[in-house]
Structure formats: structure tokens, C-alpha cells
Amino acid sequence: MKLFTYIKDNSSRIPKKNFQVLGGLELWKHLIFEMRDSEIYIDTDSADILRECHQNPDLSHVCCYDREPRFIAMENDPNNTFSPALLMVENFLDKYVTDPYEEIVLTHVTSPFLKKETVYDALEYLNQGYEFVHSIRSVQDFAWIGPHFKPLNFNPDVVQRTQDMEKIHFSNGAFFMFNKDNFKKYKNRLGEHNFYYPLTAVEAIEIDTPADLELAKIVYGGLENA
Asked: Whole-angstrom Cα distance, residue 219 to residue 202?
């Protein structure tokens, strides 16, 4: 199994997000250290991350390399509305993965509570014949969609029990799992035969906004003192 992630030097919603400190450790290191028994590859435009990966013996399991200028140009182009993420995955697969059936875990370091046991458990679904495995967050509650608040999973004319409702599933960026052959087939992180792996409320925490970061600090403190 190879684990792949891409890490930006800076972010728009939280300046220097990946370097924010959570529990005495920079955000980008939490998952990297959690998966220290894995072969990890990082695509980054950060000189600081490149330097530390090359110098810190605790990161000897990490292969860190420079983001290609064409991907940086795409990210910085105000007229481009698409992320180069899929192209960066394909670039990684072409350069570093020779076995077309090797398990690949695409993850994001903005999910600091993800546990390696969860990753390995989810990988089992690839062995069961699924082409892709993707982490999700499931909610069983009253839900509306759109600016006019159209009921999504309930009948507004009656009072329903939440336990009887259809669950609403949200994509979570903690991981996408696949092999090189299937990624090349679909040119995407999902295909026709997907398993959607539900995360616990804590592992599903993703840090995208300042409020997410504050929540993560509170949760981390609570787990530390439990």
C-alpha cells in the first residue's frame, strides 16, 4: 500500500492552515505520523515541508517532492475553476507506482483524527471487489436542500422519528482508495463500484475553516484529557 497526499504552503480560508498547531503538533504532521508504518508520498509547493521531510529522521518514511509548476499555475489562475487534484494523482501514479493493482490511499492532512486502524479496515473493501472506497459522514436528521429549503429526506406534513429517516451522506476528504488500473480507467477518484465508508463523528472532522480549527482544538483537548 502507498499513501499519497498533496499539501499546499498556504490556504485562502485559514492562512498557513497546514502549519497551524493542534495539540503541540503542526496540522500536516498528525496523519503523517499516525501512518508512520506506511510508504507515504507528498506533493507540495512548500519549501518548509520539503526541507523537514529531507532532514527530520521521524519523516524517513516519507517521499516528498516539488509540485510541478503547471499545477501551481492552474491553482493560481483566477480564470480556472477546476482543481489540478486529479492531474496530481495521475502524475504520482505515473512516477511512483509500477504495480497497477497496488492499493493506493489518497488522503488529506486536514483530517487529523483519522486512525490507521480505520484506514486498514477500509482497505479490506478493495479486497472484496470494490473498485473504490471513499470516506463519508452520514447524518440521520431533518434535511433541506437549496435556497428554498426543499425537504430532502422527510415529509413536512407529518412528524417523523429521526431513526426512521433516510440517512443523508456527505463526502468526506479523509480518504479515497483505489488502484492505479482503476484510476486510469475512470480518470477519477470514484467509479462504478464504490464502497462508501462511514467515519465516526470525530474522525470525520475536516479542517477547512477557522471554526473547524477551533472545534478540532476543543475535541483534541477533550480526547487528551479523557
From this structure: 8
Grid cell of 197 as nine digits: 465508508
Supply the DSSP symbol for 79.
Answer: T
Over the stretch 29-88, which tens digit does the pLDDT of each residue have? Answer: 999 999 999 999 999 999 999 999 999 999 999 999 999 999 999 988 988 888 999 999
Amino acid residing at 29: K
The DSSP string of 147-173 is TTTEESSS-TTS---GGGSPPEEEEEE
Cell of 16: 498557513
Q: What is the dihedral angle through the alpha carbons of 4, 203, 36, 55, rounded to the nearest 10 degrees?
A: 70
- Look up residue 51 and give its three cell numbers: 526541507
- Structural domains of the chain ordered from first start: 2-135+172-198 (3.90.550.10)
pLDDT tens per residue, range 143-172: 999 999 999 999 999 999 999 999 999 999
Cell 523537514 locates to: 52
